[in-house]
Write a structure and sequence with these properties.
The structure holds 2 protein chains of 2 kinds. By secondary structure, chain A is mainly β. Chain A is built from no helices and 11 strands. Chain B is mainly beta. Chain B contains no helices and 11 strands. Classes of the chains: A mainly beta, B mainly beta. At the A-B interface, strand 5 and strand 10 of A face strand 5, strand 9 and strand 10 of B.
Chain lengths: ~110, ~120
């Protein structure tokens, strides 16, 4: 959807480095989500947030951190503690919580290790 | 938490045939079931969804059925076309234990290939 912008499209991380993936939405959605996608594994939830200044861990939060200082922004930091960060990262948003309606996805960021 | 199983993992059909993908879920409180289509290297896109108070929903060549008693739901694609080739994901919405926040649990995906 044109309303969710992820950047950069490709990102390379060096050993011991933290990197931040950007996710911005102009859909006025309350809820935002970060997923990691590996081949053959579907989408795994990293973190999600239903309101500003509040977020919850998903299934694979270790080695990642997020912030939700503004309604439209939900950046994800991949820390050096995440030993296998190579994956396709997808950000999504929904008008309210996930039980009320569909999630809309951004185009993703592909992260690789140098 | 919720557990969503999806079968088959790969499916090949001839153009014009029908394709069926099945999912089961474990949490009887799940109440929203979307299906997403993802083409190679692209974002997942919602193709159809169904709520727990409805047994079937149809949109042109695509339909979804839900059996709450058996806790399974299925995607049906009729008159398949080569452009239907993609990975399809089912999902179920549930809340984590002790939380009121809803989230989606995804199946592992089905690679559908439609041969001309």
């Amino acid at each position: 959807d044109g309303g969710i912008t992820q950047s950069p499209k490709y990102l390379f991380r060096k050993e011991g480095q933290n990197v931040t993936l950007s996710c911005e939405q102009n859909l006025n959605h309350d809820a935002m989500y970060w997923y990691r996608q590996d081949p053959g594994q579907g989408l795994r939830l990293i973190y999600y947030s239903q309101i500003v200044n509040d977020f919850q861990k998903g299934d694979i939060a270790e080695g990642y951190s997020v912030s939700r200082e503004k309604k439209e922004s939900f950046p994800l930091t991949v820390t050096s503690a995440q030993k296998n960060p190579t994956a396709f990262y997808l950000c999504a948003s929904s008008l309210q919580g996930a039980q009320w309606g569909p999630q809309h996805f951004g185009d993703g960021t592909r992260l690789s290790i140098l | 938490g919720e557990n969503v199983e999806q079968h088959p993992s790969t499916l090949s059909v001839q153009e014009g045939d029908s394709a069926v993908i099945k999912c089961t879920y474990s949490d009887s409180a799940s109440n929203y079931f979307p299906w997403y289509k993802q083409e190679l290297g692209k974002r997942p896109q919602l193709i159809i969804d169904i709520r727990s108070n409805v047994g079937e929903k149809k949109d042109q060549r695509i339909a979804v059925t839900l059996n709450k008693t058996a806790k399974h739901f299925s995607l049906h694609i009729t008159e398949t076309q080569p452009e239907d080739s993609a990975v399809y994901f089912c999902a179920a919405s549930s809340a984590d234990r002790g939380s009121t926040l809803g989230r989606l649990y995804f199946g592992r995906g089905t690679q559908l290939t439609v041969w001309p």
